[in-house]
């Protein structure tokens, strides 16, 4: 059930952070952020990529009307700002810390190229990750634009099942242990937290799901 491109078992931070390499260790430092601190803004120079040592980071942008659109919420071990690797000179998104003690490993683009050049497996993984995120974002935006809230919740639960789920041998349920809060999920699917809660409770009453704070059990096929 677990997706190949989720880096729980293959932690990019643990493999690529420069402080683990003798040539970079003496000059490398971590950046610390508090809750709702911006790591970078739209239009900032794109000269680094970032690895999350601890905490969670929200990636998004603002529409012309000032509405926030959340593209991704990332956690420990994940990489962001990765389009700098492809040659982007300016950011087209913002990155914001969501926790009080978020620790970020900034990696200059040239250093990242050196690290990836020395490890072809992870070089391939990083490029594949970029493509995967683009496809996932396109799918999510399509759902937000054209589907009702219940459909968006259902499709997101299926996405969570692919990324974080496993089959419970006793019940046959798909068990999802995930890193998101209810607010995180509501932001990701373009709805309000009360609407999301209402739909989840409706699904629970219909015996389609059961859930607690960080666990969801699907009783339908994902």
Describe the protein.
The chain folds into 2 domains: 12-144, Jelly Rolls, CATH 2.60.120; 148-218, Winged helix-like DNA-binding domain superfamily/Winged helix DNA-binding domain (Arc Repressor Mutant, subunit A). Helices cover 36% and strands 24% of the residues. The chain has helices spanning 12-16, 22-25, 109-117, 120-146, 149-164, 182-188, 193-205, and strands spanning 31-33, 38-40, 48-54, 57-62, 68-74, 79-80, 94-97, 102-108, 165-167, 174-177, 209-211, 215-218. It has 7 helices and 12 strands. Helix 6 (182-188) crosses helix 7 (193-205). The strands form 3 sheets. It has a 4-stranded antiparallel β-sheet. The protein has a 4-stranded antiparallel β-sheet with strand order 2-7-4-5. By secondary structure, it is of the alpha+beta class.
List the helices and strands and how they pair.
Elements: H1 12-16, H2 22-25, E1 31-33, E2 38-40, E3 48-54, E4 57-62, E5 68-74, E6 79-80, E7 94-97, E8 102-108, H3 109-117, H4 120-146, H5 149-164, E9 165-167, E10 174-177, H6 182-188, H7 193-205, E11 209-211, E12 215-218
Antiparallel strand pairs: 1-8, 2-7, 3-6, 3-8, 4-5, 4-7, 9-10, 10-12, 11-12
| Computed CA radius of gyration, to the nearest angstrom | 18 Å
CATH-level-2 architecture of the largest domain: Sandwich
The fraction of residues in strands falls at 15-25%
Q: Strand pairing plus helix content: what structural class?
A: alpha+beta
CATH fourth-tier homologous superfamily of the largest domain? Jelly Rolls
| Silhouette | globular
Q: Indicate the low-confidence ranges by residue numbers.
A: 1-10
**Oligomeric state of this protein:** single chain
Q: Please state the average pLDDT score.
A: 84
- End-to-end span in angstroms? 9 Å
Please describe the biggest sheet, giving its number of strands, its sense, and whether it closes into a barrel.
Answer: 4 strands, antiparallel
Count of domains = 2
Strand runs, count: 12
- Determine and state the CATH class of the largest domain: Mainly Beta
């Amino acid at each position: 059930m677990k997706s190949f491109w989720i880096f729980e078992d293959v932690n990019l931070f643990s493999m690529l952070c420069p402080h683990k390499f003798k040539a970079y260790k003496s000059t490398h430092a971590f950046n610390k952020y508090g809750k709702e601190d911006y790591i970078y803004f739209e239009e900032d120079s794109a000269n680094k990529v970032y690895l999350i040592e601890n905490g969670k980071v929200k990636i998004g942008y603002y529409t012309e009307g000032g509405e926030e659109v959340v593209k991704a919420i990332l956690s420990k071990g994940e990489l962001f700002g990765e389009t700098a690797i492809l040659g982007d000179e300016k950011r087209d998104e913002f990155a914001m810390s969501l926790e009080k003690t978020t620790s970020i490993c900034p990696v200059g683009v040239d250093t990242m190229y050196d690290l990836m050049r020395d490890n072809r497996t992870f070089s391939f993984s990083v490029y594949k990750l970029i493509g995967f995120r683009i496809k996932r974002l396109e799918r999510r935006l399509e759902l937000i634009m054209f589907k009702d809230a219940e459909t968006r919740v259902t499709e997101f639960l299926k996405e969570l099942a692919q990324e974080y789920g496993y089959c419970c041998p006793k019940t046959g349920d798909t068990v999802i242990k995930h890193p998101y809060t209810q607010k995180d999920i509501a932001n990701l699917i373009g709805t309000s937290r009360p609407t999301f809660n209402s739909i989840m409770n409706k699904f629970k009453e219909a015996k389609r799901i059961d859930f607690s704070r960080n666990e969801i059990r699907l009783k339908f096929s994902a």
